[in-house]
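Input/output pair, single chain:
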Amino acid sequence: MEDKKPYWEDKHFAFFCNRECEYYPCHTLPEGQDLNCLFCYCPLYMLGRECGGNYTYLDSGIKDCSNCIIPHQPKNYGYIASKFQAISQAMAEQEKKSGSE
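Output:
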């Protein structure tokens, strides 16, 4: 039985590489992998500890994602897209909190 590819695999909307960027390459990927810049500012950041990435928290409390390559690997487009509902819920909760202060 043949594995069915995800609908987004090999689609142009799921990948963008900006080699003209002043910070390119911002992350080091395994040899032979292209850097996906589509999620340069990772939408998973706001999920905090629930993002699933390789992060640390600095002493200042800032989340440091410099060692994370999840948003930069083309294979992870589906993972990030699957988190949009959780991102939306987190944003709604944040808005509710800020509105009650």
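Residues 12-99 form one domain. Helices lie at 77-82, 84-99.
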